[in-house]
Amino acid sequence: MKRLISPIxxxxxxxxxxxxxNVMANYFTVQTDACxxxxxxxxxxxxxxxxxxxxxxxxIKPDPGxxxxxxxxxxxxxxxNSLDTTTNPSDVTYTTSVDxxxxxxxxxxLDEDAxxxxxxxxxxxxxxxxxxxxxxGEPTKRRHVALTTPxxxxxxxxxxxxxxxxxxxxxxxxxxxxxxxQYDPLGDHDTLHVTFELIPDTFCVEITHIFLDSAGDIVxxxxxxxxPGEGEHCYEEGTDVTVTFNKGPxxxxxxxxxVDGDEEFLYDNDGYWPPSxxxxxxxxxxxxxxxxxxxPVGIIEIDIPSLKVSxxxxxxxxxxxxxxxVIFTRIDVVDITGNIVINIENPTDTINFSALPIGNxxxxxxxAKGFATRSVIxx
Length: 379
Description:
There is one protein chain. The longest helix is centred in the N-terminal third of the chain and has 14 residues, at 7-20. The chain is built from one helix and 34 strands. With 379 residues, it is mainly beta. It folds into four domains: 7-110, no CATH class; 115-198; 202-294, no CATH class; 308-378, Immunoglobulin-like, CATH 2.60.40. The radius of gyration is 44 Å and the shape is rod-shaped.
């Protein structure tokens, strides 16, 4: 253990050297010295010459966790609280006029108002600070002057990131650049603990928009967008992604969706796509191709080759035949003036024409993808 040198002994030695100095005529000698745990500028234990009346300034900087304990000028104590700390609270400035020879000695002690921070880290990363003062034998503990703002740097191992940062057991946020935690300011003893987690894989969703005019030809754009928009969007593994369709004021519909190369069918009871498509939690790259179609009449007409109405002409009940996968959501019978004369909301495989006058009719069959029509004669 290093033995501390008595400030009185240092002062006597300084005074002896001071009185033994051969002072130049018309000049005064200023000698300065300091104990351990701090620095002074200028440090001139051998003395330097100054003109009478010159302004002499001494900058005193205790080590972190220390304060001025002993400050003597020509053997007379100076109250440290009277010194100037306006420039920097961690530095002290002593200014005097050189009106005679000066011998200055400064010593330091531990700051009783300092606080300790214990900073620990889980596997796969570190937390450390260059501020304050290390505590011998306790590598996770540092001593800091009260009301300072120490910074603790956090360094995850490659492939890892911060999982959670705890201050006194409670989760707190941290700054991203530089990565770590800044106190503002330190007002008590404190603990920091940081844990790390693997950076998850990243998967991307490639979204493509296709626009068709009412004839089915591809056009450059239309009155429909999606969220996320067209292009590639990347997310962490397990992120739940839903693509939302944003319709503008124009007559456009979601006509078809192809997800990962497979066409999807997800219509509501009115034959329209719902406002979004859930991709779910990402575990791989995904693609979604959305086709929007211009539909000036409000719904898209489609072809159903298997659809037949018989007998035709019909005087009473007509039977509907079609493939089993074709499902009608609604059937309308329209006369030659365009009026709906029969509306069937829950259609079966028959239509009763008995109550209608003799004439020509259009039967509109609504499905999830649009509607198909057949002409029927009532006799």
